[in-house]
Specification:
heterodimer; A: alpha+beta; six-stranded antiparallel barrel; B: alpha+beta; three-stranded antiparallel β-sheet; 9 strands; 24% helix; 37% strand
Chain lengths: 375, 124
Amino acid sequence: MTSSSDLRKTPLHALHVSLGARMVEFAGYEMPVQYYEGIIKEHLYTRTQAGLFDVSHMGQATLDGDHPASALERVTPADVAGLKDGQQRYALLLNDDGGIKDDFMVARLPSERALHLVVNAATKESDFAYIAERLKGRAVLKPLPTRALLALQGPMAEDVLARHDYDVIKLGFMKAGSFRIAGAPAIVSRSGYTGEDGFEISIDANEADHVARALLAEREVLPIGLGARDSLRLEAGLCLYGHDIDETTSPIEADLAFSIGKRRKMARDFPAAERLMNALLEGTKRKRVGLRVLDKVPAREGAEIIEKSGRVIGRVTSGSFGPSVGAPIAMGYVETPFAADATELAVMVRGAARPVQVAPMPFVPHRYKRSTQGV
Amino acid sequence: MADLRFSKSHEWLRVDGGVATIGITKYAADQLGDVVFVELPTAGKKVSAGGEVAVVESVKAASEIYAPVSGEVTEFNAAIKDDPSQVNADPEGQGWFFRMKVAGTGELEKLMTEAQYKDFVKTL
């Protein structure tokens, strides 16, 4: 076991402790898994009010150069060059075989040449090294280790944040811009990892405590830990890197082909493009699916998925109790002939086959606020 | 007179007339967080001290519950199967897991008293 002194801390560490958080190791950081209310209440609160998450452990960076977007397209199949001012996109970082090195967000901030990237905490060092190396001479990656990242998520997030900068209401889903939150200059994007409307707020680490306290002082806002973050994203059908996707999974079998830009599909100019386009046209051997557990036993990561004959046809990659669903839910990979909605399968939990059914994702409808206004 | 004892794996055990009621401690329930499912042994199951008897699932993970002493399961708490949140709400009362006939008193002596358990938790 790693002693807590070896772990990295975010700028909000002291605030978490003072709020009574239970701190756990996550991606080398000491992070709050839950606060006093517990995961289920925190989860449900985020779906009805607004939850504040510290995601400062994630990796932020800028990518600058003459044409940073076309440079970045060397390592991702997303349409980065097509990003308009103030637009953000979900993208995959691919290795040369088309395996997923990470998933990340890329934004073009209004009237700025450099792109803003947010990558996963556990992979940030390797991502940054990989991007810098692969884009050498074309673009310069500059990690931003002194920036904090907060996520404000839930149906009341807009009302709350608008009290601090009214202009955030003009941001549509997956749009980003510069604002002032509690006096601090902030890069705000309308996005998140819960399936709810919400924002991610990037600020200087020195301002993090002040901004977080200002948001927590709003009556609709409670602090939410990583436990509820995980159950919220699972209900929203969103992948967790290192679990649902990794270097052995392709974007096609992971059902993430939407993140491949149309122009990129035509041009076939991304890593392993021929292989991935063939997979897209001809299908893959396995597919990522949602699973509803028909009794009360949670199916956890690693559990085998079997068909009627008892043959193993896949494995669970994420599994938990879904507080808003009110039952256990999971996602995993199954052989493609078993991937159709409502297919009856079973998962092995402690030696017993438990009935599950392939279910469409998200398990809980997304409530993103898509706006045509845009900034 | 009921005798309350504790194990290092955070089970409590209350012995009354050779029958022990077993559950998890408040400390364990708080550490687990919201309990969403329990798997309980059926009556008649013979268990030995330290053996796995039940499973408790929180939102995040599954944890095993061990028999603090050897004996035979006589009863399980159906109420926590229907409403697992009782394990969090009242772990050392309504949230009990199962009852068992204790085979002998020797193993009981090795378990911690309440005072000893409180000291033990402080070291964690």
